[in-house]
């Protein structure tokens, strides 16, 4: 396994991480999900991804069961919360800890930063970040980050608003793949800023749950090698079978830093298919926007904002 440093922390994390969403889907039973997580850790993976809203909690429950028997101590455990209010964020964090069966979570991230109003809701006095900072002080979590899949400019705005409040994130998660480079690119716009600030870079959607492969332009190993070649701390990949886990191990085993010519050759293969974002529907549609379909997950608006609203 290849290990990298997680941003400005001292944590050494596996270059490949196990994505949590696939562990709770209907066609993956609990026994297989547990086997995937434990086999990944046995093979050197120490970064585990999850989220409060994945599969109505099944993903966290299954991962929690997999972490029993000494596996918890071998993993850097991450989950995400959707709440934008302090109250809702705290509730979701506590629920995630119960599902996972742990007394602390190593990294908690604000999930789906998709809208320009999200940073403001999170950083208000009664916003979600206040809940995470308090939880960090209480020992419930160690590091704080955020994620999003919609637009790199919103990621940059989240960093800007955080800086205005004197806060620096430990990690940022985003789509990093051979198609992203051509359309609304996180790798071109956000990654350089994260490198500058020494913030841990978490890549996701290297194959977009197989959607990119339907373009018939690139292979799974090429997708993973490209993401690994970026200055990522971890490339989080969905694993729904032992064969796909073996594929992830093979990608790490065969990875070597790529020359610029090699990178450009890969990008040339996807340039036409990627030009309009068709194979990245998480950017161009609302189908992947869980919080848009479930606005209650965000919690109530700030009390201060509610006070200035006209009567209904």
Characterise the protein shown here.
With 312 residues, the protein is of the alpha/beta class. It is 41% helix and 15% strand. The strands form 2 sheets. The chain has an 8-stranded parallel sheet. Strand 1 and strand 2 form a beta hairpin.
Question: Layout of helices and strands, plus pairs?
Answer:
Blueprint: E1 3-5, E2 12-14, E3 16-19, H1 30-42, E4 47-48, H2 58-66, E5 76-81, H3 86-100, E6 105-110, H4 118-123, H5 128-137, E7 141-147, H6 152-164, E8 171-175, H7 186-189, H8 191-197, E9 200-204, H9 220-229, E10 234-238, H10 242-253, H11 260-274, H12 281-284, H13 290-293, H14 303-308
Parallel strand pairs: 3-10, 4-5, 5-6, 6-7, 7-8, 8-9, 9-10
Antiparallel strand pairs: 1-2
Helix pairs in contact: 1-2, 3-5, 9-10
What integer value in Å does the Rg equal? 19 Å
Shape: globular
Mean pLDDT, all residues: 96
| Strand runs, count | 10
What is the element string, with H for helices and E for strands?
EEEHEHEHEHHEHEHHEHEHHHHH
Euclidean distance between termini CA atoms: 58 Å
Spans where pLDDT lies below 50 across 5 or more residues: none
Tell me the helix content: 40-55%
Strand content: 5-15%
The biggest beta sheet reads: 8 strands, parallel
Individual helix count: 14
Tell me the structural class: alpha/beta
The oligomeric state of the chains shown is single chain
